[in-house]
């Protein structure tokens, strides 16, 4: 009788022990599974035309130089939030007609499907919101038509970039883009270039810049000008955007149309990231076809507890 009692008491303990062991092994297995991350990717040919026929095997994603597995590639259909930052300082006075025409073409190309929103900010004299984010095409046309240079004013491009980036971060914009149109006039912002670049990266915005060199006489030796030039260079490259230097404002319309077509023809690329306590410092993408140029902007990470 005593022997039977001992067997009955030990059998449940053995079952529970096995169950606990099995249960404890599940989280450790899950921890080894790679996480998924997403990028918004532009792929352009040598004429800066978007390439729209690629598959997932046509791109290489690297984190800090290490190749990652591309899991999925699809056309990016998520709505864009685009902030147009326009130089209306004294230096842009002779450019305003071409700027208005180019911006109108950009608005028409972006809003053709009705899902993307745009805002308009000027930065002659000081950064000023001319139109809050909207999908209203008539309101956008009206705001663009009211653009004129402010006599005797200088530019505050860096202040406008930083303020716009902070606004995107506060709104937790899901696919933000900043498009800057700036002359070579005098820059008056006191912002350091690193402060502006950090704000851009925190916002998750892709930064594009059209730099008009036809009119303007900025002194490259001034701290303000050097800070601006560094932001236009590094800020665009490090956020997945690009800088275009225009020798004549007659090309503004074509450049803005080209940019609009690029943005509405991007890819969303999902890749695998092994679990790590230290996030990568740099994520890059390249096309296997060396005649193509690819640039990527990381998708904003969901808030803690939010679903992907």
Offer a concise description of the structure.
This protein is of the alpha/beta class and 308 residues long. It folds into three domains: 1-33; 34-76 and 266-298, no CATH class; 81-263, von Willebrand factor, type A domain (Rossmann fold).
3D architecture notes:
- This protein is of the alpha/beta class.
- The protein folds into three domains: 33 residues; 76 residues, no CATH class; 183 residues, Rossmann fold, CATH 3.40.50.
- It is 35% helix and 26% strand.
- The chain has seven helices and 13 strands.
- It has a six-stranded mixed sheet, with helices on both faces. The chain has a four-stranded antiparallel sheet with strand order 4-11-1-13, with no helix packed on it. Strands 3-2-12 form a three-stranded antiparallel sheet, with no helix packed on it.
- α2 runs parallel beside α7 and α4 packs parallel to α5.
- It is globular and about 60 Å long.
- The N terminus and C terminus are likely disordered.
From the structure above, extract its key features.
disordered C terminus; Rossmann fold; disordered N terminus; alpha/beta; 308 residues
| Uncertain spans | 1-31, 304-308
Strands, total number: 13
Distance between the termini: 60 Å
Query: Could you give a short account of the major beta sheet?
Result: 6 strands, mixed
The tally of domains stands at 3
Instruction: Characterize the overall form.
Output: globular
Beta percentage is: 25-35%
Under CATH at level 1, the class of the largest domain stands as: Alpha Beta
Derived from helix and strand composition plus strand pairing, the structural class reads alpha/beta
Continuous helix count: 7
Mean pLDDT: 88
What is the fourth-level CATH superfamily of the largest domain? von Willebrand factor, type A domain
Radius of gyration over all CA atoms, rounded: 25 Å
Order of helices and strands: HEEEEEHEEHHEHEHEHEEE
CATH topology of the largest domain: Rossmann fold
In spatial order, strands of the major sheet run 7-6-5-8-9-10
Overall helicity: 25-40%
CATH architecture of the largest domain: 3-Layer(aba) Sandwich
């Amino acid at each position: 009788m005593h022997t039977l009692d001992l067997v009955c008491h030990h059998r449940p303990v053995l079952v529970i022990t096995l169950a606990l062991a099995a249960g404890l092994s599940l989280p450790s297995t899950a921890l080894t599974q790679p996480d998924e991350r997403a990028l918004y990717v532009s792929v352009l040919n040598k004429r800066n035309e978007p390439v729209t026929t690629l598959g997932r095997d046509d791109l290489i994603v690297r984190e800090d130089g290490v190749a990652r597995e591309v899991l999925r590639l699809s056309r990016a259909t998520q709505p864009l939030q685009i902030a147009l930052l326009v130089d209306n300082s004294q230096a842009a006075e002779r450019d305003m007609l071409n700027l208005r025409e180019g911006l109108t073409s950009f608005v028409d190309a972006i809003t053709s499907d009705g899902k993307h929103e745009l805002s308009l900010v000027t930065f002659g004299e000081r950064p000023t919101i001319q139109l809050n984010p909207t999908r209203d095409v008539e309101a956008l046309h009206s705001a663009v038509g009211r653009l004129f240079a402010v006599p005797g004013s200088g530019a505050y491009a860096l202040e406008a970039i930083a303020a716009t980036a902070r606004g995107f971060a506060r709104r937790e914009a899901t696919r933000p883009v900043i498009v800057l149109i700036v002359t070579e006039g005098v820059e008056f912002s006191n912002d350091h270039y690193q402060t502006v670049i950090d704000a851009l990266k925190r916002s998750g915005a892709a930064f594009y810049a059209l730099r008009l060199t036809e009119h303007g006489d900025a002194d490259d030796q001034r701290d303000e000008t050097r800070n601006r030039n560094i932001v236009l260079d590094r800020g665009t490259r490090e956020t997945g955007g690009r800088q275009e230097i225009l020798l004549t404002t007659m090309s503004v319309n074509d450049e803005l149309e080209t940019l609009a077509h690029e943005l509405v023809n991007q890819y969303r690329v999902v890749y695998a990231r092994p679990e790590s306590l230290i996030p990568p410092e740099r994520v890059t993408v390249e096309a296997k076809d060396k005649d193509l140029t690819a640039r990527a902007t990381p998708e904003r990470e969901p808030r803690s507890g939010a679903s992907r």
